[in-house]
Amino acid sequence: MVTIANDEQNIISMLNQRDEQALHETEQKYGAVCRRIANNILGDERDTEECVNDAFLKIWNSIPPASPDDYAAYLLKIVRNNALNMLKQRTRAKRGAGQLPASLDELSEILPSSKNVEGEVEKRELLAAVTQFLRGLSPKHRDLFIGRYWRFSDDETLAQKFGMTEHHVQVTLSRLRKKLRQYLEKEGFL
Amino acid sequence: MNSIDFALLINELPDEMIHPSDEEEEHRKPFAIRYLLPIAACLIVGIVCAVIAPNLRVQTPPTKPTTDTTIFVSDTTTQSAETTTVTRKHSGVSVSGSISAVTSANADDQTDTNSATESTADSSLSAQGTESNVTTQTDPSQSVICTATTTTTKRTSSTTTPIKRTSTTTTTTKRTSTTTTTTKRTSTTTTTTRTTPTTTGTTRSDVTMVFSSEEMTLEVTDPGPQPTVYQYHVPAARTVKTETVPCEKTIVCEDFQAEIYRDGFPSGMDFDVDSAFDFSAYDCMLIRFRTSSEAAVVSNMLYNNYKCLRIYIPLFPNRQADTVQIFTMAVAVPKELHLSNSIEVIPCPSVYRNAKELQDTIEYYDQNGVTFTYFVFE
CA torsion, points B232, B237, B239, B245, in degrees to nearest 10? Predict the structure, then answer.
């Protein structure tokens, strides 16, 4: 972690100095993770590459003035946001006929109603509720949930990562969705 | 909200939750931990069960002879006869004794009174409880300490008085017999210490009555060597004494009842203060009597070098009429001695106005051969 933090600080320093080597370092260090997440969402290599390159460009343009505490998380959020927006555009262009990742289908079980989450304030409250829910989980379950619904990893990848069987991963995720639904119901979002 | 919007929303989760540093293999346990450790644990458990456990049998300590005896005696308000188990052994070993507790029914202040009796013969000394846990000792030189604890209760329909009986064994050659009784109002403790010497070819029979009641201290000392043959009999001077000592014999007779139990079974013999009973027909017997007096003392007395069993009944007529006490004593008479035993009941003066008067009475008895050294009612 210390090395990673130092590397991140070096990258941020190079970005602040407008050193293009920062992008090479970012590509070398986080390119694979970024592409994996983008590919999990988009399912297309060309779109994934475009998404990742666009994320690097946003990094270059946003830092400075931005100075993220966690450079990797900042980068992954940009990649993920780009991928989801691209998926959203693609789905809209195909009028809902597009193929969504399985993880996004699973999220439909816990989607709050639109009338309860209309404004930005309500979205913030919903985000806070989800965050609170995740903080109440065990680290393993929390990482499993993040891996599935934030990085959109498939069951096989999660099973290998967590040392579980795919069936166990599915069952655990099903229980976590059920618990999140109950939690959101309790909080008034469903 | 669709799933993409929700996914975009949770894009803003805290950085620590989504940091890629834990991306790779964080939660995967190493192969050694996942498989080898459980296997090793199972092997260890198996080894323990198969090899070590059979060698870890608990070593049971040898059972020591029971020296503590707890006897529970239940009394009822009907003044029913006590059930007392008295056993004996022949062949030179006399075993007898009893513990009982009786509670009167009509008393304003009911008092549980317990008595413990030990009997020895020749080179044996033994003690026995009424129900269970009997300790028998055959060592020629033994000392038995009997402790009887009584409690005072208010009027209740039924009481149960536990009596803890402790016997210890010591070796001694001193030929003395000392009986000490110390009682208090709310808790009475009777302690009897008997020492039986090692005597070969000598027949000796002791009957020790340890009796406890309220506020009473009695100490009787057996001075020393005794004749080889003892008999229980009515002293010749008894009539004189009962006549010379003012007493309310009639009252005593009316309130006095005695039952003699043989081997634990009541025989229903009435007791008369003017008569003497021949105990030779009984192995062991339990005498139970009821009196309106406040206290009574039963002890073996040495009278003209003869063992006499006497019951002293000091009367207090000012007491309420329904104040009744029932005293139970056990008399152990070794059958093999073929004694012509008698029991003497000597009513004491009706009222002791003070301790000096009582002491005078005691001295009077002393002068007539009753050898007790200290006898005080408070």
Answer: -120
B48-78 pLDDT per residue, tens? 888 777 766 555 555 544 443 333 333 333 3
Residues of A in contact with B1 (CB under 8 A): 111-114, 117
Tokens of A68: 């993220």
Q: For residues B119 and B332, is the Cβ–Cβ distance under 8 A?
A: yes
Element (H, E) at B284: strand B284-291
Write phi, then psi, for B140 (nearest 5 degrees): -60, -40
- Tokens, residue B34: 């996942």
Q: Which of A131, A158, A177 has the highest number of chain B CBs within 10 A, making it the mutation to test binding with B? A: A131
ipTM above 0.95, yes or no: no
Cα separation, B332 vs B146, in Å, equals 15
**Residue A1 corresponds to which amino acid?**
M
**pTM for the structure as a whole:** 0.37
* Dihedrals phi, psi of B321, to nearest 5 degrees: -65, -30
Cα distances (Å, whole numbers) of residue B89 to A36, B16, B86, B127, B335: 100, 90, 10, 12, 10
Q: Which residues of chain B have pLDDT under 50?
A: 22-27, 64-353, 369-378
pLDDT, one tens digit per residue, over A9-31 is: 788 888 888 888 888 888 888 88
